[in-house]
């Protein structure tokens, strides 16, 4: 079989995602789609608006054949580790031929060229990077500036590096090199709203704009023509029962946690240079989540990085050796759901995979899996439909 992998979050699943699924099938001429999906916490550093099993159901309704959970250690990390965890997982399955992702550029050759520089890190590039970091820039901005200078201020490179999905696509291509994988990357040019756009559009509204509308407006019916019907129906039901999850909900828990123990933050993987002290101080002074992040972020520490740190703190990543865990390839494949074609793919995976495949959780849990379970327990505080033991009591979804 010719199998294509896609890497997603579906927070929530919208028409642009369905476009991506269908175009991936056409472009790669594949026999099936395997989806790596973030669990209950996503890469922006926020809890998912809908739980991972509900989002799996939407994915299977939309043409995905098999859904595998991306472990929390990767889903709550920077683009580099998010991509590495996802690609290493796809590569270990032994059945994935292609990876197809969306990008603003749509030019796979250029994305691969940039990825090669980041993977090989020629000395000239490393010197540029050091100079920009020493000037006080955040790592993402310093790296972007170093790449632009390395490519002699090429305006096309500059445009590419200003868009978040291009950056993630570059990281996917870099991770393929890092894993020495035979997976062939493809990219589809994004349509409609940009990833961070806050305004709703009838054709392809961004997940950000949809979440913002749900958070700020009681008029949910405006989304009826914007969302796929399955997504709208699910969101309408959860909205009506006050069961959508927003990041603000974690604020009182992390504030209280900071009062009980003030030496844990520094053990988180993305905290450095005394940032934990600023977070503790600002937590005491802030009255809401948005103000908290806005008062911490700086030229060096982006809004998203601070969001991830706070989510990591909420879950309890400080108790784990996160640096080692996220730098290592994904150690297992946890199945969230499948259809009939997915069952066929799963049979092939069991023959060829170099890592364990979990339909049910094993008795002996490794550290990465323990962290996933801890993530679900933390999420259960925010979502009344999820229990602390949901990882043990919820079976994979079989979509007939």
Automatic annotation (TrEMBL):
<comment type="function">
    <text>Catalyzes the formation of N(4)-acetylcytidine (ac(4)C) at the wobble position of elongator tRNA(Met), using acetate and ATP as substrates. First activates an acetate ion to form acetyladenylate (Ac-AMP) and then transfers the acetyl group to tRNA to form ac(4)C34.</text>
</comment>
<dbReference type="InterPro" id="IPR014729">
    <property type="entry name" value="Rossmann-like_a/b/a_fold"/>
</dbReference>
<keyword id="KW-0820">tRNA-binding</keyword>
<feature type="binding site">
    <location>
        <begin position="7"/>
        <end position="20"/>
    </location>
    <ligand>
        <name>ATP</name>
    </ligand>
</feature>
<keyword id="KW-0547">Nucleotide-binding</keyword>
<keyword id="KW-0694">RNA-binding</keyword>
<feature type="binding site">
    <location>
        <position position="165"/>
    </location>
    <ligand>
        <name>ATP</name>
    </ligand>
</feature>
<dbReference type="GO" id="GO:0016879">
    <property type="term" value="F:ligase activity, forming carbon-nitrogen bonds"/>
</dbReference>
<dbReference type="Pfam" id="PF05636">
    <property type="entry name" value="HIGH_NTase1"/>
</dbReference>
<dbReference type="GO" id="GO:0005737">
    <property type="term" value="C:cytoplasm"/>
</dbReference>
<feature type="binding site">
    <location>
        <position position="102"/>
    </location>
    <ligand>
        <name>ATP</name>
    </ligand>
</feature>
<keyword id="KW-0963">Cytoplasm</keyword>
<keyword id="KW-0819">tRNA processing</keyword>
<feature type="binding site">
    <location>
        <position position="190"/>
    </location>
    <ligand>
        <name>ATP</name>
    </ligand>
</feature>
<dbReference type="InterPro" id="IPR008513">
    <property type="entry name" value="tRNA(Met)_cyd_acetate_ligase"/>
</dbReference>
<keyword id="KW-0067">ATP-binding</keyword>
<comment type="similarity">
    <text>Belongs to the TmcAL family.</text>
</comment>
<protein>
    <recommendedName>
        <fullName>tRNA(Met) cytidine acetate ligase</fullName>
        <ecNumber>6.3.4.-</ecNumber>
    </recommendedName>
</protein>
<keyword id="KW-0436">Ligase</keyword>
<dbReference type="GO" id="GO:0005524">
    <property type="term" value="F:ATP binding"/>
</dbReference>
<dbReference type="GO" id="GO:0000049">
    <property type="term" value="F:tRNA binding"/>
</dbReference>
<dbReference type="GO" id="GO:0006400">
    <property type="term" value="P:tRNA modification"/>
</dbReference>
């Amino acid at each position: 079989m010719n199998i294509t992998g896609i890497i997603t979050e579906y927070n929530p699943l919208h028409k642009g995602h369905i476009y991506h699924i269908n175009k991936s099938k056409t472009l790669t001429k594949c026999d099936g789609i395997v989806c790596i999906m973030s669990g209950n916490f996503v890469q922006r550093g926020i809890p998912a608006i809908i739980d991972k099993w509900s989002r799996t159901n939407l994915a299977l309704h939309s043409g995905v054949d098999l859904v595998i959970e991306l472990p929390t250690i990767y889903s709550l990390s920077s683009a580099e580790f998010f991509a590495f965890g996802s690609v290493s997982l796809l590569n270990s399955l032994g059945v994935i031929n292609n990876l197809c992702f969306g990008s603003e550029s749509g030019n796979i050759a250029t994305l691969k060229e940039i990825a090669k520089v980041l993977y090989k890190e020629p000395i000239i590039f490393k010197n540029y990077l050091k100079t920009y970091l020493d000037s006080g820039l955040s790592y993402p901005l310093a790296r972007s500036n170093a790449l632009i200078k390395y490519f002699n201020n090429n305006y096309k490179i500059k445009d590419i590096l200003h868009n978040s999905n291009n950056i993630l696509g570059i990281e996917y291509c870099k991770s393929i090199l890092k894993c020495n994988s035979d997976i062939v990357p493809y990219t589809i040019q994004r349509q409609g709203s940009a990833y961070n756009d806050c305004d709703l559009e009838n054709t392809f509204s961004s997940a950000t704009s949809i979440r913002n509308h749900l958070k700020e407006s009681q008029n949910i019916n405006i989304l009826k023509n914007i969302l796929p019907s399955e997504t709208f129906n699910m969101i309408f039901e959860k909205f009506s029962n006050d069961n959508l999850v927003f990041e603000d909900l974690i604020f009182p828990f992390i504030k209280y946690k900071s009062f009980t123990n003030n030496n844990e933050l520094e053990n988180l993987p993305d905290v450095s240079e005394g940032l934990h002290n600023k977070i503790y101080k600002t937590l005491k002074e802030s009255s809401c989540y948005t103000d908290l992040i806005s008062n911490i972020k700086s030229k060096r520490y982006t809004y998203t990085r601070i969001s991830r740190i706070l989510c990591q703190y909420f879950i309890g990543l400080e108790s784990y050796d996160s640096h080692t865990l996220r730098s290592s390839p994904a150690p297992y494949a946890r199945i969230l759901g499948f259809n009939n074609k997915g069952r066929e793919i799963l049979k092939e995976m069991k023959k060829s995979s170099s890592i364990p495949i979990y339909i049910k959780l094993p008795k002996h849990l490794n550290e990465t899996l323990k962290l996933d379970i801890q993530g679900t327990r933390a999420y259960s505080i925010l979502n009344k439909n999820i229990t602390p033991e949901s990882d043990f009591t919820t079976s994979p979804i079989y979509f007939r």
